[in-house]
Design a protein that fits this description.
With about 400 residues, the chain is of the alpha+beta class. The protein has 15 helices and 15 strands. The chain has a domain at about 1-75 and about 230-250 and about 265-280 and about 290-405: DD-peptidase/beta-lactamase superfamily (Beta-lactamase, 3-Layer(aba) Sandwich). A hairpin with a 2-residue loop joins strand 11 (about 325-330) and strand 12 (about 335-340). The model is unreliable at about 1-15 and about 20-25 (pLDDT under 50).
Length: about 400
């Protein structure tokens, strides 16, 4: 009864927060919002990137390694995890521009050996189905996300016998296997690996010199993530306390690189966010067409996660949609395009109408009291930062999100 009462009290305060108007004096420091949010959620360290027009703010807070005083700086390496999926969407868009792919191409046009237990789905599933996770393909990470011996041939063999997790095109059903297939399509259409394509068509023209597509790519060019000095080391909350995690549980091998492989730093993420806000333009060159970007940004299907509520994106969201490599919702009447990353949790969110972009990359995974608590932390902090630049200071979204987390069913 006490939890239920607290839940309804939290919802009431959220309704008030969502409908209140901007204050006359919005001069509250951005640093205080970030530091207060970290303290509330007990996060050891976080890298924050904010892009507003031509202005780029980058700052590290706390420590990059739990229990030390080693600072987070603009060169600190960090895993962006599933924020990589937006890069995957851009690779497809670039190949659509090249005339090598169409968004609605059937997967079997490019991977003719694809077989599924449901033959109709095998024939009809398309590239845009994979990008919006509406293919119905399994949520299981077949072969393991860190298995260097597991290849596309192994994945295709397993998919022959794995039934769909949900009805075809009925809902958004997150599938890492679908993203691996997408990487294979890019490989076959471009004549180079997905990783090489990202390096050639995105990293190099954007001068993202500290970005790597997967753990093997990073290890090859920089070193073992466990041994590199200036890198975010994962911390995991267990039984109410953060403990050191391991990079053995972070990142991907090449097969699943399109689903979550990229390792980067604040400086390169600022460049990526700015490129997206500049509608695909870099140094006077249009690297991806406005038509492709329009297709990427369109809402396609409402999300229906089984174990994550809409409120983890935004406490006041009435609807969250899936697009190509992202989710979207409204904040104060403006559309926000967003995606989260797991392992250490992160978010990259842009508000195109206001030319504002935010990247938040902590070194913490908070899986209690609910498994999505980490997403609550980064997403609420993103809303706090958007509000700072929109001139709204009356709502502490991090506090509101913490109330929702505490009121949720344990283990949800």
């Amino acid at each position: 009864m006490k939890i239920t009462s607290f839940f309804f009290s939290a919802i009431f305060t959220l309704i008030t927060a969502c409908t209140s108007s901007p204050p006359s004096d919005p001069n509250i420091g951005l640093d205080s919002r970030i530091i207060n949010s970290m303290a509330r959620w007990e996060v050891p360290g976080v890298a924050v990137v904010v892009v507003t027009g031509d202005t780029v703010l980058m700052k590290g807070y706390g420590s990059r390694i739990l229990g030390t005083s080693k600072p987070v700086n603009t060169e600190t390496y960090l895993a962006i995890a599933s924020n990589t999926k937006m890069f995957a969407a851009y690779t497809v868009g670039m190949l659509v521009d090249d005339g090598r792919l169409n968004w609605d191409d059937p997967v079997i046009k490019h991977i003719p050996e694809l077989k599924l237990p449901d033959r109709m789905v095998a024939k009809k599933v398309t590239i845009d189905d994979l990008l919006t996770h509406r293919s119905g393909l399994t949520e299981l990470i077949l072969g393991g996300i860190r298995n260097p011996d597991y290849k596309i041939e192994d994945l295709l063999k397993e998919l022959e016998d794995i039934p769909l997790s949900t009805r075809f095109r009925a809902r958004n059903n997150y599938s890492q296997a679908g993203m691996a297939l997408l990487g294979e399509i890019v490989t076959r259409a471009s004549g180079m690996s997905w990783e090489k394509f990202v390096q050639t068509r995105i990293f190099e023209p954007l001068e993202m010199e500290a970005s790597y597509t997967s753990n093997p790519d990073f290890t090859d060019k920089v070193g073992d993530p466990e041994e590199v000095e200036n890198i975010m080391k994962p911390a995991v909350k267990k039984d109410g306390k953060f403990v050191m995690g391991s990079w053995q549980n972070v990142g991907t091998e090449s097969l699943y690189a399109p689903s979550g492989g990229i390792i980067s730093n604040m400086r390169d993420m600022a460049t990526w966010i700015q490129f997206r806000l500049n509608n695909g333009m870099r140094n006077g060159q249009q690297l991806i067409s406005s038509d492709a970007l329009d297709e990427i940004r369109k809402p396609r299907i409402p999300i229906e996660f089984d174990n994550i509520p809409w409120s983890c994106f935004h406490p006041c969201a009435e609807l969250v949609d899936a697009g190509f490599g992202h989710y979207s919702f409204e904040h104060r009447g403006r559309r926000v395009i967003s995606h989260n990353g797991a392992w250490m949790s992160s978010v990259i969110a842009i508000m195109p109408s206001e030319n504002i972009g935010v990247g938040i990359f902590p070194n913490a995974w908070i899986g209690e009291p609910v498994i999505w608590a980490s997403y609550g932390f980064v997403n609420a902090l993103a809303l706090d930062i958007f509000d700072h630049f929109l001139g709204h200071q009356e709502v502490d979204w991090s506090s509101k999100m913490a109330e929702i987390v505490m009121a949720a069913e344990p283990g949800q």
